[in-house]
Design a protein that fits this description.
The complex is a heterotetramer of chains A (375), B (175), C (140) and D (1001). With 140 residues, chain C is α/β, with parallel strands linked by helices. Chain C is 39% helix and 16% strand. In chain C, strand 1, helix 1 and strand 2 form a beta-alpha-beta unit. Chain D is α/β, with parallel strands linked by helices and 1001 residues long. Chain D has 22 helices and 48 strands. In chain D, the strands form 15 sheets. Chain D has a five-stranded parallel beta sheet, with helices on one face. A five-stranded parallel beta sheet of chain D has the order 13-20-14-15-16. The chains are: A alpha/beta (375), B mainly alpha (175), C alpha/beta (140), D alpha/beta (1001).
Chain lengths: 375, 175, 140, 1001
Amino acid sequence: MEETYEIRGTDLLDSVKKLLTSVFETSSVSSMLVPVRHTTTHVLMPTLVSDPGELQRADPFAPCFPLNSAKLVSKLTKKHSNETMAAVLRPCELRALVELVKIKQATMDNLITISFDCAGAWPNREYNQAATEGKAKNRGFMEQRLESKFDDETEDRLATSCRICAAPFPENADICITLLDHDPGSIGVFAGTDRGREIITGLAFEPKPLPGTRADTVRAVIQRKKEAGKKVFEDLARETATMEGLGNYLASCVNCYNCRVACPVCFCRECVFNTDVFDYEPFQYASWAKDKGTLRMPMDTVFFHLTRMIHMGLSCVGCGQCSNACPNDIRLAELFTAVGKGAQEGFGYVPGKSMDDPFPLSVFFEDEFQDVTGI
Amino acid sequence: MDEMIKLKEMLNPCIQCGTCTASCPNEVDMDLVPRKLWRMVLMDRNEAIFDSQTFTLCSSCYLCTLRCPRGLPLTAAMAKLKAIAAKSDLAKYRKSTRFYKSFMESVRRHGRVREGEFMALYFLSMKNPLLPLSFVSLGMQMMRKNKVAFELPAKPGTGNLDRLFKKVAEIEEGL
Amino acid sequence: MDNFEPTIIAFVCNWCTYTAADLAGTSRQKYPPNVRLIRVMCTGMVDPKYVVKAFLSGADAVLVSGCHPGDCHYINGNYKARRRVRLLHGILGRFGIDRERLRLTWIGASDGIEFAKVIHAMVAEIKALGPAVSDMKLVI
Amino acid sequence: MGEKQGRALVVGAGISGIRSALDLAETGCDVTLIDAAPHMGGVLSKLEYQFPSDGCGMCRMLPMADRDTCLQACLRKGLVHGGIDLMLSTSLKGLEGEPGKYRVTLETEPCIIDPNLCTGCNRCSEVCPVTIPDPFNQGLSTTKAVHLPVPHAIPNIYTIDMDHCTLCGECETVCPFGAIYLPGDGRLELKIPRTLVEMDVGAVVLACGIDYYDPTTGINTFGYKELKDVVSNIELERILSGTGPFKGSLERPSDGRVPSRMAWIQCVGSRDLEFPACSSVCCMIALKEAVLVRKRSGGTIETVIYYMDMRCFSKEFEAYRRRAENKYGVILKRARPHSVRHDRNTGGLWLYITGDSGVREDEAFDMVVLSLGQRPGKSVKDLAKITGIGLNPLGFFEAPLSGVGDNTGVFAAGSASGLKDIGESVIHSSSASAMALKVIHGAKKITDEETEPLNGFRDVSTQVPDIGVVLCQCPNGPDIEPQVKSIGANDVHVSGIMAMDRICTREGWDGMLEALAGKPFNRILVLACSPQLFLDKKAAISKAMDLDPAYIDFADIGKGEPLASTVKMGLARIRYADRLNSMASTMVPKVLVVGGGLGGMTAALSVADSGFEAVIVEKEPRLGGNLVWLDKDITGYDFGRLLDNTCQQVENHPGIRVFTNAVVEDSRGGPGNYTTTFKVGGNDSKRIGHGAVILATGGREAETTAYGYGTSDAVKTNLEVEQALKAGTMDPGDMNVVVMIQCVDSRCDTREYCSRICCKSSLKHALEMKRINPDLGVYVLYREMMSYGFSEIYFKEARERGVIFIRYSLEQKPQVISGTDGPVVKVHEPILNRTMEIRSDLVVLATGILPSAIQSLAALFDAGVDDYSFFKEADSKWRPVDAVNGGVFACGLALGPRDTKESMASARAAAMGAVRLISSRPAGVSLVTAGIKHSLCILCERCIGSCVYGARTLDPDAGKIRIDPVACQGCGSCAAVCTNSAAFVNNYLDQQMLEIIDAAI
């Protein structure tokens, strides 16, 4: 049984700041990536903090999720560095990061990952709207969510991806923060890795078992979210049961490729759809139009999304940033999460779970999937 | 037993494949099937060999010799065992070796077998007064079918086989 | 529907299945003209987007066919292809492109008859299933 | 292809001849490859599934370094190589001269069907009234007197069986191309008569293969040819084949029913009076066939193999046997059925069998397969007479132990010197080609002949595609010109369409060349039927147009697909045709040989004799390896002399440098260009550049603690006995009984593989001891005697000399008990079914072979080891001495257990492989080769992981993926894993493929 600890502050943020500060102080961390509230708006942006004093404005718990930080961690760690860094990540961000590490886009050699019970976030547009109107609910959001055991009326306000996220709890972070079922204002800490254990034992917090009710609560949350997901996926399956259905679903796509820019596991320097592979000659357009009678422009939108599903579906962590990114409100998160989930199940692969699970298309075994060649 | 060493040399190349046994029409009646018999020869298990009736049951059909993948003279080897048994006058085989000897003696004398004389020689050699009685039934049957000639035939060949038998004995001596 | 003639795109590996297809031709094992052979060096080079492209361009079925396990000229390209086809089954199946329409087979160089058989069967089954995509031109 | 060497003649175009021809052609020799049959491929053209992979993969023999010299297609179709002239229906009739300067006479059978005119349209066969048994299917099906000799070959020219042809003339009348000229009707001359050709060659390789025993010539107790369901193993292979008599479905020939029980009878025509040797491969063939039958039938057909010894003696064969038994449920029974009889009531077959117990165990089957033994090939006697090469008592070519002192330029390859499995045949063929190359190289006349400058064509690589389309108009087909023209009109890149009359004929072809000459097109697309026929003619078009063949392509319009698709697809393909010239590489003409035992020395000599430098790095202070302690081989050949000779040659050879006390430390680079550092004498570091590496690191006798070894001086290993006999410290005259125990710690869970040479060693020792002391009792306790091939003769001799062989099983292993008068061996005798106790003076253990630890060494060169820690070969059949990447080779015990003769053959084969690689011309970047667009690459390294050839590496300094164009084979795995097409394969570009797909629909 993993040793667990408790930190009691004046409130949740105070407790978590205590933790972050002591990680800073005791683990020779040179900087820490954490969402920080900036002065003028209520928008929180991932911020690289090197002065522990600045952690005062950190707030990882707000329903604000402007981008998946895995991409940032990739930028910060892709090249080897001797400095140790820490990053506070939502579970889906951490999963995306693990996927990126597998494809050499990031390393965790000198990175301490910290994650927590994620209460979800609002769609970006809504959060920003609220922030502009001064109604963004930063403080108090998590408290309210915890009080209801993640089952209050604000659930409906969450981004769909968060609403149906069946893995909102930290597992393989170095330092995992538990919030559910703790006394108000206090948090729990346990190590998800060997390195985490080393750090935590050096932090001199009070060992205390996790609340006895937590396991059941977690199970219930997951169960509820799974059911919510099931409904979403069923509706989606009906809507996109045919290629025509898929075409309609994606009808307003304008090939802006924002979804792929926002996607944490879409790692290409340049999407293949922006390369000369799809750089047709003018006469070709004319000839297609002639052959088909009509040619929907821009071309290759369904092709693009299907290709993206093939490329990143197996690594999709369901963070929902694609939906945030779409200018035309295509419900991409549901689509990609559903497709990704199916693809992943086909290989028994859980993205982000472990560095030891190889990417399914990078390996093979001789005696597997023999049904593929059958009907 | 020099004879057994010679026999062993004859059989050395045997690979114990069992083709001889599978080919043998009398194999079902043998207490030691040919395959085992030959193995015993190679292993110098002479007692066991001469405790068995196998070679006396060989009817010299030559199927084993024909089929042996090593081309071994298996029928000849059976004959050799018979000869050794006869020469050593082993009690176990007396019945058959003396029967055989008596038969040959009659043939030597007359150029063909005279059943009466043959049986008389056999009974004499076995020195068992009760033995003739055990042949009564078979004798009767054979007589009924005219298989036993009582009258003495003309003797055109009498004594002519002496030289032949002598020559064979010489050859056997040399083997 | 009776007059429906499906179009099947067949990605065949240069070493085994292409040879088999050739053999089917020379040994007069006629197979229906619905199939368009696209020779690739190895099934392991069949990028999933080729398959997607084929369906989006109007193919009613796609066949990927290469060497038997263990026979791949490039040691193991066929095993890699198998994983990709499995992925495609999972993804395309969701959008109505069932696995009947995307097949992976191993056809050895001497299996001209087998090749013809596979094509015959596939054409018959796809005829029964109907076109893969009935009206895509306005949406893709 | 390398620098020009002389010419070689290879007799026989089966797998061995193909291997030899490729070896020699790749090293720059001109090769004439002849075969008496009208097709190539030999017996393998009939066998589709070969152990141990149960599949094919023959194409893996094709050149790796300079791929475009050779048609990239299934080898079953045929071999088309720029340096190889293939002459079918041709035999060697005369040979004069001396090694290096032979004049040979070749005779080609007359042609009744002109191969230049026949297009394979099959009309002749349709009208032919004469039906004959199809020789391709061993007579199990029928064909016509005029027929295709094999269904899949190219070029596939019809032949007429003149023994059956009635000269009715129907075919001649119907042939649309006038290709058939029947004799008769006063026409005494054939159009293409029997021809005799003389040519000069430096060396000759005889790869004429073997024949099989015909049971009908013997007592035939198995009823072959009398009982329809008794078939030979080759007949069964045909039955299982898709081109076979039943189109691949497994049926009984008598009534077409699927059999439910099948039996295999081993050693039919082997290990008997007429042929006292073992045929070496039948055990594995039978296992494979039984496995195939089990797999095909989903386990519903019961398969029983009746065998004498199951000889699975190559390193992965024992595992195969285990799989066959345990996974596939093949039943093995040790028994020798003596005859097969027909059961009138059931229609089945009875096998008459006696089991170990001596009880009759006759069994009923409905199909029986005879594993036929080998016989010398038909032509062997004649060839021996012509070439003066000796025959062994069984009528096979002598394969001399070494080339030492042999003054010949004629070498036997493959099975011509005794039946071998594919891997061994390939090894022995490369070994023969290495010896032939030595002779040719030695006799080389230095010529000033310019090799054709590479890419001396006009540079069109930067030009906008300007496609010329040539259209072959068939007089029998519809007029397709208008349709092609209208397609061309819609493609801005098409600038000319030329319709030609039948380019499949000589006249049509020449007409096309004439029309194309001087035309400005920079891409040519030829639309014709069966374009494979023309692939080797690309060069002609290229010459006529001064255009790199990379820009010439063919599209097959004879397949029955819609013309528009075919044409559009062809246009899309040719539009993107290109050659990557930026990645030229250099070949370092030097070979590193790690290990200076017999294998290493032989390999180094072979390399050096071909004109390249060899560097031997040996960790011991002296050369010789295991040969130092070996005495004689089973034939009495003196290893001491071999060692002295070889060492002397190595030391005196100007092309060989030797470093002893030296250990390899590090290596970088790839095939063609390695840089390796090694340490001499513990501190002196040296660095060399080399193009290839041969690992000849050897192996050793396995240690053991079994059977009381180490506790008694009377228990020794084979090695100790060999040494003691050599040194004279052991006198068999002082002993009464010696017991030898085979398979110690081998062929069991401890060590799965058979060490192959222990049985031969024990036979050798047994015979030697018996020679010294004929009265000595020698008992050999064995599980299977692996006296494969001609060594079976010594097994027989040992029995004849009175050695007693007792079979034991893993369940009842012998026990060695120490006694006051020496060890007592207890063993169960299965025939007598009783336990024997043998008091012995000496117990000899055959402990098997272990490889030297080479895992880390192999890893330095991007090669690996197998499950047993031997070198992992790319393919045990087709590439048996090389690693997947094509730059690393291994020989001798590093590769697996083998005897000295086999080690030397493998060493020459490894050397041949290395020489093939380093003699290929630099800058030979093949057309289908991978590339990378650095600007798109984000270094996810998935492509590196996907490449089986190790052709892709990360250059950490430059932060770029590097591609080794020699190692790259163009499989496209990298391109398929790359999500944004940064990795690509030339001529299979994504945009090209997408356009082709689009055009197809």
